[in-house]
Amino acid sequence: MSAQISFIEGQFSLIHIPLDLYSSLLQSILQVLLPHGDPTHQTSPEGLLQGLSLDHKHGFLNISVTPTECSIVCHTTWAQNVFAPVIAELPKERSRQVQISKESYIVFSVNSAGMEAGQRVMDLTAPLAMAGIPIFFITTYYTDFILVPSKDRQTVGSALLARGFEFSENDSAYVAPTPTTHSRIPSTSSSDPPSTPPPTNVAELQLRTFNQLKKRNVVPFVEPGLHLVQCSGKEILPQDEYRNGMNGHAQQSSWMENIDPRLYVGLVSALAQRPKFLSLTLAQDDAPSLLLDKSLLQLFGNSIAGDTEGDLVPIFLDLSDLPLESTGIVCGVAGKLVDEMRLQDPAATHTSELSYLSTARAGAVILGSEGSARALEALLPLFEKVEH
Questions:
Q1: Exposed e or buried b for every residue in 223-245, given b needs 16+ CB within 10 A?
Q2: Which residue, 61, 110, 332, 347, is the most exposed by fewest CB within 10 angstroms?
Q3: Do residues 185 and 164 lie in contact, with contact meaning Cβ atoms separated by under 8 Å?
Q4: What pLDDT does 276 receive?
């Protein structure tokens, strides 16, 4: 299957919230999660904001609570009008610990059904990493999303065209006629010397990535006892009679008509207790997507769909000491991991379920429990410093 990359309208901000300040920002988080008011009128604070469709859906929103941080990706107007005022009211030393990205980001969605998951992460991030573009990558139940700095939009287009993508005017998207395969790019060898110009191949990119991570003392880790499931909120098809008044005139629909309220009760309940892990992604064209701690499933009842019997384990990378503009992290780590696991066992299918979650200051490689154990075993030696 070919990949199709489409830009989501709007400018977005990345927000880092330390866990010890989570409760101070919880009201802002819930305010963004549960937008109300009419975005076309200025009758409420939300009414002054952009980023919502006429049916009150977010173009894109990600709320992630992990063992290392709370991370929010939201429209820049929500960041500035909902989060920034609350942050400004915190004691000065505390407010400095919460960070809203200085530059804005653009988000594009990737429809790549049929591509093997681990290969998909690699193939989609390699062209951008090779072009020196810093990215954030979010795998969801339905779609992959990639965040890049707004200033790099033209470079993204050029990088995709250079890798065989074609721009479709009809779809307003970049389309790859055939999947860009990892085998077309020299890899696996780590003997290529690093240099100051952009990397010339993926092997060199991987080498640079791990050198950078080792210099910053980044070590992959798992959180004991943490097991995840990836699932979707159920959508409710609105009834015609619910949309129409008694006089037959159509009434404006609310976003609440299209979702199961029990899902949002579960989300509020989970967020109120500061979950060990919960990542929610809302996108205008998808039902809500969740990656969450299995112990939270009881809060949602039958409001979610998907493999709730799954058993995923995240491997975390604390990237707080790296600048936001670091490049090649996703591609370098995921690509090298795929290589190493295939070298260990060419017949293994563990990487077929690999996904990746970028948060403001961390990354998580997510695999099934068995695959995660093998992945951690493969990764740890790559982070060992070599004494010269």
A1: beebbbbbbbbbeeeeeeeeeee
A2: 347
A3: no
A4: 96
pLDDT tens string 111-162: 876 566 666 777 778 888 888 888 999 999 888 999 999 999 999 989 888 8
Residue 346, pLDDT score: 67
pLDDT digits (tens, 9 = 90+) for 83-114: 999 999 999 999 999 999 999 999 999 887 65
- CATH classification of the domain holding 174: 3.30.2130.10
Handedness of CA 103, 109, 110, 113 (dihedral sign): positive
H or E, element range at 309: none
Residue 237 lies in a domain: no
Q: What count of residues does the chain have?
A: 388
Count Cβ atoms below 10 Å from residue 207 Cβ, excluding itself: 20
The count of structural domains within the chain is 1
**Residue 188 structural domain:** 4-223+312-383
Identify whether the C-beta of residue 70 lies closer than 8 Å to the C-beta of residue 17: yes
> Which residues make Cβ contacts (< 8 Å) with residue 192, sequence separation at least 6?
200, 201, 203, 204, 207
The H or E element spanning position 305 is: strand 304-306
Q: Where are the alpha helices (H) located in 229-347, listed in sequence order?
A: 240-243, 261-272, 329-344
pTM of the model: 0.86
Other Cβ atoms less than 10 A from the Cβ of 96: the count is 10
> What is the DSSP pairing of strand 362-368 with strand 312-318?
antiparallel
